[in-house]
Every structure is written in C-alpha cells, then in structure tokens.
Amino acid sequence: MEFRNYTTTDYEALCDFLIALNRDDRRHINWNWARLEWMYEHPQFDKSTMDAIGLWLDGGRIVGAAIYDMYFGEAFCGALSGYEDLYPAILSYAYRELGDESGVGVSVCDDSAGEIEALRALGFELSDQDETVMSIPLDGQLPVEMPQGFTIEELDPAQQADDFQWLLWQGFDHGTDRTEFEVKETIVPQVRPHFDRSLSLTAVSAGAEKTAYCCLWYQPGTDYAYVEPVCTVPSYRGRGIARALIHEALNRAGDLGARRAYVISDTEFYQRLGFTTAHHFSFYWKL
Which residue, among 115, 95, 114, 93, has the nearest Cα to 105 in the 3D structure? Predict the structure, then answer.
C-alpha cells in the first residue's frame, strides 16, 4: 500500500477511482467523477492547494482518497470495496490536512453504518448540515415542450466563454447589469476533458437571447448521468423553459447509454420533473 499526495497527472486516475467507487454501490454518488470535473474548473476552486488531496494506492491504482470540496473545511473521504479498513486513516488525514479554522466536515450517506461508526470513533459529531441526491430513471423519452419562439442550442464553456458566464451570472441571481458583470467577472474558457457539448444546452429566445442553461455529464462505461448546473434568467422563469432543456438533455444522455440521472437537490422543481430521493447525506464535523 502506498500513500502520496495528488499531482495534476493523477486527474484521470482520480476520475477512474470515483467511477469505480460508484459502479455498484451508489452510497457515494454525491461524489462522482462529474462533480470532480465540474469543480476542477469552477472559479471558486483553488487549484494551488490541490497537492493537499491525499491518495492511497495499491499496485498503482487509487483505492482511497481524501478530497476537499471547493475549499478547505469540507472533505470527501472514500475507499473502494475491499479497502474499507483504510477509511479511518483517510478520515484522520482529512482532519489534519483539509480542515480550516472551523475544523472539517465530512459528508456521508445515512445508510453507510460502517463509515458513520468510524467518524464517531474519531470524534466527529453529527451536524444539521446535509444534502440530498435525487434520481430519475432514463427508460423512455421525456416530452420536450419548449415554449413557442424558443429554440435549443448547444453551448460550449470553452469556445463561448463570455456567453456561458453571462448566462450563469444572471441565472444564479448575481444581477442583470451587463456593466457590473464585465467589471467583476473574469472571462476564462473552461476546458474539461470529458465535456460533451451535446449535453450542454441553452434555450434561445426569438430575439437571440440565451435564457436558460442545463448541462449533463456522462462517460461511456458508466450507466448514469449527473446534472450540473441548471439555471434560468429571472425574467424567463415559470415558462417551462428549464423543464424542456432538462428533458432534452436527459433524453440525449439516455441515447448515449445512461440508465439513470442524478442531481444534488431536494427541491420541488426536480420533484415535479419526476426525480425522487435516492440517498440522503449528513455532515459530521470535528473542530
């Protein structure tokens, strides 16, 4: 068994680890390869500290990992089936190396009794912070009912960086002042190695305005897609635009081979689309 810290050359191997971790047991689906890939180019993610990520390897294969979530203070800890005895060491590493002034919080599935026992044994305590993962089966074509005058187009965050960031700026309620956006936002093309443009969709109005966005992530060899992100410009909400975009993206993911899609959410919006709760995750903290 070998331990070492992450380097940029480990990216694909870390994705493979997360794929293997979720292949047959979805109790870690809140942390999957697509969440890592989305986070990797997120403007809030600090790449300068990535060497703090801890990796446990057996024969050169990653079998355990401690990964911080966007910034220090929250961590994901996981070990492949057959390597569960590493979990306490992974937790201890996360506490020592990935915490901040408030300690470290670790998200764990409520159904993972062994992991919860290990957390409690090391002094982690249950908090009121949690997250829910919902899912929907992709066993048929969903209706795509885009309002009249709107069309669906693909949107590439690398080749259309300005359009992409302006759309998310509005859609996530930062405002609609273009001048403020240009002052505060740095336009950075976001290049992700497993990005599939056909699953990155925007709704365009008759006036050529991009009004909503939905992106799904899927890799051949897996049987699920991951939804991240979805947003609608405030003045276009309530018209069914996002529903149509998501349905179109889900249909495309199903055509590619995904049998189910997951999203980290517990909102009524996804319930109305047919998503149901798959797993609930609680955060355990140690100061």
Answer: 95
Please tell me the total number of residues recorded for the chain in this structure.
287
- Report the Cα 66 to chain-centroid distance in Å: 16
Q: Give the phi and the psi of residue 196 in degrees, each rounded to 5.
A: -120, 110
Q: Identify the architecture of domain 2-132+281-286 in CATH.
A: 3-Layer(aba) Sandwich (3.40)
| Token reading at 76 | 């994901």
- What topology does CATH give the domain 151-258? Aminopeptidase (3.40.630)
Q: Tens digits of per-residue pLDDT, 13-26?
A: 999 999 999 999 99
- Name, in order, each residue with C-beta under 8 angstroms of 203's C-beta and a sequence gap of 6 or more: 146, 150, 151, 152, 153, 210, 211, 212, 213, 236, 241, 242, 244, 245
| Coil, helix or strand at residue 105 | strand
Residue range 119-168, pLDDT digits in tens? 999 999 999 999 999 999 999 999 999 999 999 999 999 999 999 999 99
Q: Residue 135: exposed, middle, or buried by beta-carbon count in 10 A (0-12, 13-18, 19+)?
A: buried
Quote the pLDDT of residue 15: 98
Which percentage of the chain shows pLDDT scores above 70?
100
Where does CATH 3.40.630.30 sit in the chain? 2-132+281-286, 151-258
